[in-house]
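Below is one such record:
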Amino acid sequence: MSYRFAKTGIIFSLFLAFVFNFAFAVEAKAQTIQTGPQPQDKKPEEKQKQDPKNPTFTAEQIAEGVLIATVGFGGRETLKQIRGKGIERGKYRRAGANGQTEEYTYERRFIRGDDMNKDKVRIDQKSPTLEYALVFSHGNVWGVMNNTIFTPREEIARMFNNHLWYSLESLLRYKENGSTLNLIGKEKQGGVEVYVLEVTDKDKRKIKFYISTRLLRVLWLEYEESPTEGGTPVKYMKRFYDYRVAQGTLLPYKTVFFENGQQIEESNISTITFGLKIDDLVFDNPSLPKNNP
């Protein structure tokens, strides 16, 4: 038994090393294409030797490693081709204003754009007492109820936007979004060693991703936001569980959302199918110009 686990550990270590070497090669090739060959160090003997038992990686290498661990060595092309369109169905459980837990079923339809600003997302939600949809398209958010367009309350629109932007997609698509990366370091939480990687997009949204150093999976993310301008920042956290393979790509089927340390929402995916044909009409808002880019 111990031999089998030891053998499995060796195989995984080799795989992890290959992932990072591959990510490094991709990054180096991209840099060479952009800037041309780099001059050789005149004194290679002065280079700091890396400890093979405790290697160090750049923020880009870790981000690329997460991408490869998620969708395979096809990287961005696989992400674009397989997960470019799809339908996700599942359930939400939310803490209501009266202290009661509210349960919704949902259907999420999406079409991926060149970057997240150009995505189209529609989430239809249904509870025993309420049924409506929220739509993000052309950078705008609106609601649909009984085939009638409405403007959602500010806090609803803000939360909907936050769920889209403060997500795994912001890490997997950091290059498309023009985001910057900052590797804060490694730390242990609950006996688990994680990389702490901060992603800042062009609108200055900052997200800290806590990534398993062993599996290169995002275990949770954290961000802060002030509900009102100049108000006290609220700390949010999303924890990801139950990673499964769907059409050759990896994603968490359970997400738990916290506000200032208190759980306020849990979502569970029932089914998800990528590559489906989705009619653009479900994302249309008649009040917006048809040529809105």
